[in-house]
Amino acid sequence: MKKTKLLSSVGVVTAAALTLVACGKSSSNNTNDAKTASKFPEETPIKTAKQGGTLKKAELSASPFTGVFAPELYTVQTDADMMAPGAEGLFDTNDTYKITNKGPATFKLDKNAKTVTIEVKKGVKWSDGKQVTAKDVEYPYEIIANKKSKSQRYTASLADIVGLEEYHEGKAKTISGIEMPDGENGRKVVLHFKQMKPGMYNSGNGYFWEQAEPYHYLKGIPFNKLESSDKIRKNPMFFGPYKMSKIVRGQSTTWTPNKYYWRGTPKLDKVVISIISPDSASQALKSHKFDVIQVRASQWTDVKDTKDVNFIANIPLSYSYMGFKLGKWDAKTGKNIMSKNPKMTKPLRQAIGYSMNIDQVDKHYTHGLFFRVPTLIPEQFGDYFDKNSKGYPYNLKKATQILDQAGYKKKGKWRVQPNGKPLTIHFLAMQGSSIQEPIIQNYIQQWHKIGLNVKLVGGRLTEGNSFYDKLQNDAAGIDMYDGIWSLSTEPSPNDLYNEKAPFNYGRFVTSKNSKLLEEIDSEKAFDHKYRVQKFHEWQEYMNDQAYVVPMDNNYNLYSVNNKVTGYSLKPSKANYQFFDVAFTK
C-alpha cells in the first residue's frame, strides 16, 4: 500500500482524497469495539510463504475509479489504490516517515549548498527492462509544472526548486535548478533550492517529488493529451513489483509480476483489485470473496466473528472536515482569491461547527471506531499536535449565542442575514454507504435547530466524480462541503492551505495564515521547539477562524485471509507492500 500523501507520493497530501465519512448501522453491543480495534496488530503473522496464487483485494468505493494512473495527474485516492501493486516510490522510510536509503533511490541533503541529491540504484528497472534514469526523475517536474498538463500538483512548496516557477510561467524551456550531472541517461539528480526546509528529511514533504515517470515511454505525448492518453489510462508503466496486465474500466485492475523488479521476484502469480460497493462489503467479507478487504465501521459488529481471517488495523494520517467556500481559484495567476465579503462569515462557520453532534454520531453509527478530532494536525505527529486544543465539541447553546451576537436574527423559522436578507446555505455532500444519507440529514437537522436553513446541493447527495468536479472547479451554488484529507507523512499543512495551493478548496487566504505557514516551514524551523510553537499557533488560529472545521478520524481496519502472510500497514513497508505479500504453505 502506498504511503498516503497528498499526491500519493508527492509529499503534500497526496492522494488527497476527498470523501465523506464512512459510517454505518448502529449496534447496542459496541462497548469495547474501540478498545478491541486499538489492540489489533499492524500486519499479518509472518509464516512460511509459497510461490504462486492470485490475491484478490477489494477497493470500497461508491463510484467507479477514473483511471488516471499517474501520481502527477490523478486527484482521487481510488486511482492511487488501484495502481498500488506497481506504483513504487523512489524512497523507503522508517516507521516515523523519515526517508532511508533502503529504497529504489538514495537521498542526500546538503543544507549549506541548498541541494538534495537523488541517485537511483543500478538495477531499478521499468517493467520493460529499461533502467530508471535521471531523466525519469526529472520528467515528473515538467508534467507538474507545465500548465498544459493541468496537474493539480504544482504548489508553492515545489516552486522552491530553482527555476521551476519560470518553467511554469513559460519563461524558460527547462528547469534550471534540476541538474543531471551524468546526463539524462545517468542515475543522479541534484535539486537546487531557494531555501531549505525542516521537513525535507520526511517523505511526503512536498518540496521534491518522490515518483519517477518513464520518459522514454511517454516523451512523444503532448502535455495537454497526457492525462487522456492510453499510456496513462490503459497501459501505464511502473517499476514496482507488479506490472498492470489488464484493466476493466472503472471496475478492476489486474497485475502480474514485473520480472525486472529490483528487489527480487514477487511471490504471487497475480493481484486483482476490484471496486466493490461499500454496502456489499460485509457480505463479501463473510463469504470470503476477497483475500483483503477494508472493514467499514458500520459493519464491524456484523463481521468481527468471521472465521479464517486476521484483522489488522492502524490509525491513518487523515481527518474529515467541514469546509466553506469563501472565494475562487484564479487559473491565470495560480492563486486562491478570497472574497472580501464572503457569505459564510466567521460566526456562521463557528456556529455550524458547534452544532454538529460528532461524538454522538460516531458512537451511534461507528461503534466507537470513529472519533472526533480537535485540530487539523493528527495526534500521530507527536508534539506538533496541540493536545490542549478542544476543537468544536457539540454545544448548541454556544452556537446560538454566536449567531445572536453576530446579528443573525430569527425571522419565523429561519435566521436571516444581519442585513435582513434571507439566508439559505447550500451544502455539497458526497454519496457513500447506505447510512450516509441519515448521517448527513442528522447534521442538517442540528443546523435547523439553531435556525440555519441548510439544504443539500441539488436536493440530494452528489455522486463522487461529480462531487470532485464541482469542488475543484468552484461550481456556483456551493456554500459548504465536507470531505476527508488523506495526509502527507510530513506534518506541514502548507500545500493544503496556502494561497497557491489548488487543494485549498475553500479558497481562503489571509496574511496571518500565510505568515504562520511560512514560519512552520522556514529555515528557522530547523529548531524543533520553534517549529512546534508555530504549529500550535496555526492550529489555534485555524480553530478560531473555522475556515475548515475538523471532524473525525477512525481506525483503519482490514480483514485479511489467514492464509496470507506479509500484508502490512506499517509505514516502513508501505513503499513495497505487495512485494512481501504471499500465500502460506
Structural write-up:
With 585 residues, this protein is of the alpha+beta class. The strands form eight sheets. A five-stranded mixed β-sheet has the order 19-18-20-12-21. The chain is globular, with a radius of gyration of 23 Å. The model is unreliable at 1-31 (pLDDT under 50).
Provide a brief overview of the structure.
The protein is an alpha+beta fold and about 575 residues long. Helix content is about 25%, strand content about 20%.
Unreliable segments (pLDDT under 50, ≥5 consecutive)? 1-31
Radius of gyration: 23 Å
Q: Percent range for helical residues? A: 10-25%
Give the percentage of residues in beta strands: 15-25%
Q: How widely separated are the two ends?
A: 23 Å
- Annotation, overall tally of beta strands: 25
- Which word captures the global form? globular
Biggest sheet: strands side by side, in what order?
19-18-20-12-21
Number of helices: 18
| Main sheet characteristics | 5 strands, mixed
How confident overall, as mean pLDDT?
Answer: 91
Structural class by sheet pairing and helices: alpha+beta
In terms of topology, how is this protein built?
Layout: H1 33-38, E1 49-50, E2 54-60, H2 77-82, E3 105-110, E4 115-120, H3 134-145, H4 164-168, E5 178-179, E6 188-192, H5 215-218, H6 223-226, H7 230-233, E7 242-248, E8 252-257, E9 270-276, H8 281-286, E10 292-295, H9 300-303, E11 309-314, E12 318-324, E13 327-330, E14 335-338, H10 346-354, H11 358-366, E15 370-372, H12 396-405, E16 410-411, E17 414-415, E18 424-428, H13 436-449, E19 453-456, H14 464-472, E20 480-486, H15 494-497, H16 511-520, H17 528-545, E21 548-550, E22 552-554, E23 556-561, E24 564-565, H18 577-580, E25 582-584
Parallel strand pairs: 2-9, 18-19, 18-20
Antiparallel strand pairs: 1-25, 3-4, 4-6, 5-6, 7-8, 8-9, 10-23, 11-23, 12-20, 12-21, 13-14, 15-22, 16-17, 24-25
Helix pairs in contact: 10-12, 16-17
